[in-house]
Each structure stands twice: as structure tokens, then as C-alpha cells.
Amino acid sequence: MKLERSFFQKYTPSVGAAIFLVFMLSACERLFVEANPTSTPTENFNHLWQTINDKYAFLDYKNINWDSVKTKWQPRVSDTMNDVLLFRVLDSMLYTLRDGHVNLYGAFNYSRNWQWYLNYPDNYDAYLLERNYYKGVQRYTGPLVNCFFDSNRIGYMRYGSFSNTISDFDIDVVVSRFRDTKGIIIDVRSNGGGAVNNIDQLVSRFVKSKTLVWREAEKIGTARTDFAAPTEKYIEPKGSLQYTKPIIILTNRRCYSATTFFVAAMLNLPNVKVIGDWTGGGGGAPSSTQLPNGWVLRYSATRTLMPNGYNIENGTAPTIKVDMLKTDSDKGYDTILERAFQELK
């Protein structure tokens, strides 16, 4: 899948090795670096603006007038300004994209828009789960926390990050453990994403047959709607056992990137419901380029649509919208998890 592609050319090491390695090791992006010796603030501003104008995948979808953005911020750039002031201007301009996959990395700072989950209920309390639900009986099978509820009739699996690799052994052990339950709960709340290979590992144990889960298209031209022909993503059954009983996925706004992809894939299955809040989105695969001064710009270069045509960039909706209530939390109850129990019972 394109979300994982990584390649580069002619890296100029002015950003710093540590920052560059962040890009090299990321499982959710493609890196393309070009060398250019020019480095005035004006030229860096123009390079960044033009890259987003030509290659960013969601200007049309988000109804962003990028020309107006340039008109607002360009007068604030001068060739006498220092790097800190230039970074602030570029950071502020990128913030208008409302995209957690858009970043600017310099040697002294990096920018990111966090609005995809700020100003929303957190809807997850790890300590409450450990104290009042796990109670020491949970197993840690690789990155999958798993246990039983309701006298072993409900299986529960917590996956905290798609950056943590799920082996065939891990998922097969957990699915086999749950084979006699009447339903399972998959808790991916506050999972910020990671490696998309783990999406296949999970979903392949829940599909009955080869299933189309989304279509991805890369931005290839300078016009707002210039996209390549979409690539179809299918997931096939894998492992010794497919679980096809009722499945409930717990989500909140901090479910981002690969987690949104996972939820979107699972929503294609008739036995799946999602309880909680919208996911945070992040439906574009990041690509990267280097500004003339060596700073690295990352931006969303693809769009992903569910088979019904829904664009997942701004997140996927829950089947049942539920927020955690403070009155419940004060009593030791997880409102969202309790609603999942009701649905399975």
C-alpha cells in the first residue's frame, strides 16, 4: 500500500541526522528529497507554498483557498528575517490545512496541527481500565492486551499502537482464545496509527472472503482534481480461524492515520459496529520534500475512499455515538465499554 512507501534522493544533512531518521523510519510515509542550494526566506516560502499548491491532496476536498492563504502570509516574509520568524510564518500557514500529516521539520522545531483531536472528549482512561476491568487477569500477547468479560462470553482485545508489530502467532492465539465467545470488543481508542501491515494482520482474521476495503489515489498533477487512477485494496482471509461473530470496535478522536484505515476496513463487514466517537482521520499517505534551506516538509499526497465513495480524511463516524461520562468515571465505569457490553448482551 502506498501509505508505507519510502524512497529518497540526495539528502542534504542540514536538518540533522536525528530528524531525518524520523522520516526514514516512519512506516506511514514516502520520502522524496531534492537538493537545491538556494535558501533565502522568500524562496523557501515560495517552495513550500508551491509544493502544497501542486501536490497536497485535500485542498479541493477541504475547500481551502490556497491563493488567499498566500496573500495573507507572503507579506510577512522578508529576506532579512531569521529562521525562527520564518518557521513561525510557515508553521502558521500550514496550520490552515487542518491535517495532522502535514509537518515542517527544522533543526530546532517541528510543526503539527493537533486540531483533529483537541477540543473533543478524550473518551479513554487507561488507568480506569486497569483498575476496574482488567484487574490483573489480562494477557499481553505481543502488543495485544486481551481478556474475557461477562463470564468469558465476551472477548476483549486492546491494541494501543499500529507501530507495534502483530505477528501471525499473536493474532492467531488471541482469535483462537476467543473462538467460543458470543462477540468480541476491539479497543483502539487513542491509537495514533503506525504500520499499515498490521491492518492486514488484524482484518484478515475477520473477513470471510477476499474483501475490497478501500480505494487509494495519488495526487499526480497540479490541478486540484488531478489524481491517478485509484488502486483497490483487498484483504483476504488468513490464519487458521476467521472470527465472524459480532465485533464491536471502540474509538475516539485520537484514533488517527492507520487506525482510521483499520476502522474503515472493518466497517465493510456486516457483523461490525463502532461505538464511541469519530476517528481523527488522517486518510492521506504522507510524502515529503526538502525546502532549499534543508527543512523537511511533509504533506498528504493521496486520498483514500471507502468502497461507497466516502473520503476518510476527516475520520469515520461511529455506528453508535457515545462519550464517556464523568459521573460514570467517578464510579469506576467506562461508559463506552459498558455500552459495548450492552450491545453484545
What is this structure, in a nutshell?
With 345 residues, the chain is α/β, with parallel strands linked by helices. 28% of the residues lie in helices and 19% in strands.
Description:
This protein has 345 residues and is of the alpha/beta class. It has ten helices and 15 strands. The strands form three sheets. It has a seven-stranded mixed beta sheet with strand order 4-5-6-7-10-11-15. Strand 5 (144-149) and strand 6 (154-159) form a beta hairpin. The longest helix has 15 residues, at 41-55. The two termini are 37 Å apart. The model is unreliable at 1-36 (pLDDT under 50).
Briefly note the structural class of the backbone. alpha/beta
Tally of individual helices: 10
Contiguous low-pLDDT stretches (5 residues minimum) are 1-36
Largest sheet: 7 strands, mixed
State the order of secondary-structure elements, H for helix, E for strand.
Answer: HEHHHEEHEEEHEHEEEHEEEEEHH
- How would you describe the oligomerization state of the chains in this entry? single chain
> Widest sheet: strand order?
4-5-6-7-10-11-15
| Amino- and carboxy-terminal Cα gap | 37 Å
Radius of gyration using CA atoms only: 22 Å
DSSP helix fraction: 25-40%
How many strand units?
A: 15
